[in-house]
Each structure stands twice: as structure tokens, then as C-alpha cells.
Amino acid sequence: MGIRNGRRARRKWRRRYCHQNIVQAVNLCHESQYVELRKWLKERGFNSKSLIPALFSDTGRGLMTTKSIQAGDLLISLPESCLLTTTSVLSSYMGEYVKRWKPPVSPLLALCAFLISERHLATGSQWKPYVDVLPKTYTCPVYFSDEVISLLPRGLRKKALDQRDEVAKLHSSSLGFFRSLQPLFREPVESIFTHDALRWAWCSVNTRTVYMEHPQSPHLSRERDVYALAPYLDLLNHCPEVQVEAGFSQVTRCYEIRSVQGCKKYQQAFICYGPHDNQRLLLEYGFVAPNNPHSVVYVDPGDLQMCLSGTDKQFAQKLLFLKQHDFLVNLTFGPEGPSWRLLTVLRLLSLQPDQYSSWKSVLLGAAVSHDSEERSLQLARMLCQYLWDENATALQSVSLLKEGAGASTREQRAVVECLRLEAQGILGHSQELLRNHQR
Question: What positions does the domain SET occupy (predicted)?
């Protein structure tokens, strides 16, 4: 439809909606929890002098360089003895209980149960210095209140509720296994392995582990075992534009991260979790990356229904056809405007009854007629305006949560607000592109 400007459009969008602020950092090296963590890690063979913990004004806690890191240099190399894996669990005091339980527990549950136990043991925990620096709570949707979840975009809202159900089901299905651990504790296990405790451990594993493949254990379920909790290394924050090479070295027996671009002295060192958009980052990691080049605004089938159903008597049948052929997934607005897939769906929705036979041509990018093209562009404008209005309403609701909110709700509100602000910038730019094309 000729409304894209490629890299030029992306650069223009970033100039308009992305602002660079001066970042301030406070050294955390001398705080007791980090002193204890570094001492504990040194005993296990790790002694990093090039990265120190710091509190940054833009990202919160992270790692700061004490010297320049050149392109190709090792950023961090964490010995295997420092990694918390299912091997650690199976060789611990909990190992025999895990091995005896049938059917076998999953690698995820084994790690969660061990984390909960270690947190409960407090000073008796061998992993105490690490557990002490783990977040006490998270801003993943599984922690969100119903009120905050209601402020998420439609598609993400459903995924957030699914995430909450997943953790609830994991807890209820694991009660028998938790009860089998009673000989390890003086207190009733029901007071230790609570839903809240499992939620915390589940988020700790899902947001902080590095990818590391392990051989299939006969004592665990057949789910892939790819988790490794990496103390200190997991303080590295995500930046979508950073490039690193990461993995476990069979030669050095360390988990190593090598910088591709390098990093200046006294700046925050970043890694990249992958080319994820902000909805995925929020769902899986509990944060939003400002100025994320992978940011998009998803169009849910429900959005199409709410916005466009009154434009065509055949709309319901067309939508059913699109759903049956899996055309209603990954529909987005991005820095370049509506995606090719979204435009294709809008073209199909714009077909008149005598043009239905042309649907295969539309899928190949062909224009059926000038009138059909204009109708599809009008649908794009209507849809973009609908999403912009919905997003603006959500932002107003988010601001109302500030009044009298507790710390947890404020944190949840802040991450949702950041997501919505990013979306508002994308939708505003898409509106401009669509208006320019109209002229």
C-alpha cells in the first residue's frame, strides 16, 4: 500500500518518541549483601574486578564496568560451582526426596522447591548470600492485581491470566510432593511451600536463569532441563541493541559472556535477552525496555470485532474465515505503521462479495481494485484511532491508581504505564503515516 518508509521511518519515530536522559549510578559494592555475595562467590572460584554492582537511575540495580571492555573481551566468566542447577538440587539434602517422588517432578519444580527451602532456612542455607540478593517480589503479571491486569492490552491480559492460572495449577498439583518434604522441616510444610512462596520462586527461575542444556536425568520428568541460576551474572540488565555471545564453556567449565561491541569504563554493562517486543518482556521478565526497536502494538481479534464489526454486514463471516485459516495472529502496528500481515487482513476484510474469489491473490500482495485499497486503508485508520483511544483511556486509569497505592501497586502501575506510553508513541506515528498516505 506504499505507506512505509523503512529505516527512515524508524529513525524518525525514535527521534520523536525516544529521549536520552543522563544516567546516574550509585556504587553498591560496600553494601553488606553484596560484600557477602562477592565473598561467597570468591570462595567458589569467582572474583570479578571488572564489574561491580550499582544502582542506576534508569534501570535500577545492575553491573557497572570498572575498566573499558573491548569488543571480543570476556564480560564475565562464572564457574560451574557457582551455578544453581538441578544437579545442585539432586546432590543436596533435598535430592533423595526428589529422586523418590513419582511421577518425577519437573526441572522447574525441583529448582522452585529448592529456592523456597533455602529462603526458609535463612542462616542455615548454603546459598544464603545469593538468596539474599534475589528480589523479594516481582513485577511479572502473575503478581498483578485484577485491577492492574484490567489495564493491560486485550491480548496480553489473557496471557497474564493464563500465567496466573499456570502458577496456581503448579502449586495445587505439587502439594503431595511438598508434603513429602516434611521430614526436612520442623514447621508444617503447608506454611513454607505456600502459593506466594511458589510464585516468588517461579518468577526467580523464569526471570533470572540463563539457558544451559543439561543431560536428561532419570530422576526428573522429561521436560527439557535448560535452567541455570547464575549469581552475580544475573544482575546484568537487558538492552535490545547490545550484542553478546553467551554460553557454557566445556573447556573452562564456566558460563561465559563475551561482549561483541565493547563497553566504556564506568558505564552499565548490558546483555540482550533476545529480540523481544515489550509485551513479551513484561510477560516473561516483568519489565519494559524504553525505546525498544522491537516494540509493536498487537491487534487482537477482539479489537477488530469491537472496532470494525459495524462496517460490513459480512464482517462476522469474514472474520471466521480468517480465523479458520490462522490469519488473525501477529497483527501489529510498529514504527513503520501497520504490518504487512495486518494490511493483508484488512484487504481481505475490504473485499466485496463479487471479489471473494480473489482472496488468494490478496494473500500474495495483489491489489484487487482501487476502491478496495481505499477501503482497507480507511479500516486501518479506524483501527489505529480505536487503539489510540483505548490506550489513552488506559493511561488515564493508570494515573488514577497512583492515589493511595501501596509500593507493590505503584511498581506494577509504573511498568504498565511504560508499556502503554510506548504503545501510544507507536500508534501516534502510525496515525501520521496513514494521514500522509491519505493526502
Answer: 49-274
Residues 224 and 124 in one domain: yes
Determine, yes or no, domain membership for 57: no
Report how far residue 341's alpha carbon sits from residue 346's, in angstroms, rounded to the nearest whole number.
9
CB 129 within 8 A of CB 40: yes
Q: How far apart are CA 219 and CA 221, in angstroms?
A: 7
> Which domain covers residue 89, as residue numbers?
84-229
Write phi, then psi, for 83 (nearest 5 degrees).
-85, 135
Phi and psi, residue 106, nearest 5°: -80, 155
Find out whether 228 and 85 touch, Cβ atoms under 8 Å: yes
Is 84 strand, coil or helix?
A: strand
For residues 188 and 307, membership in a common domain is answered with: no
Q: What's the grid cell of residue 217?
A: 536425568
Q: How far apart are CA 322 and CA 314, in angstroms?
A: 12
Q: Could you tell me the CATH number of the domain that includes residue 167?
A: 3.90.1410.10
CA angle 235, 56, 137 (to 5 degrees): 55
From 176, 199, 229, the end of a domain falls on 229
Nine-digit cell string for 171? 502449586
| Cβ-contact 208, 284 below 8 angstroms | no
Assess whether 109 and 197 both reside in one domain. Answer: yes
d(CA 179, CA 171) in angstroms, rounded, equals 12
Per-residue pLDDT tens listing for the chain (439 residues):
445 455 444 455 444 444 456 789 999 999 999 999 999 999 999 988 899 999 999 899 999 999 999 999 999 999 999 999 999 999 999 999 999 999 999 999 999 999 999 999 999 999 999 999 999 999 999 999 999 999 999 999 999 999 999 999 999 999 999 999 999 999 999 999 999 999 999 999 999 999 999 999 999 999 999 999 999 999 999 999 999 999 999 999 999 999 999 999 999 999 999 999 999 999 999 999 988 999 999 999 999 988 887 777 788 888 888 888 888 999 999 999 999 999 989 988 887 777 767 777 777 676 767 777 888 899 999 999 999 999 999 999 998 876 767 888 889 999 999 999 999 999 999 999 998 876 5
**CA of residue 133 relative to chain centroid, distance:** 21
370: which 3 cell numbers? 482501487
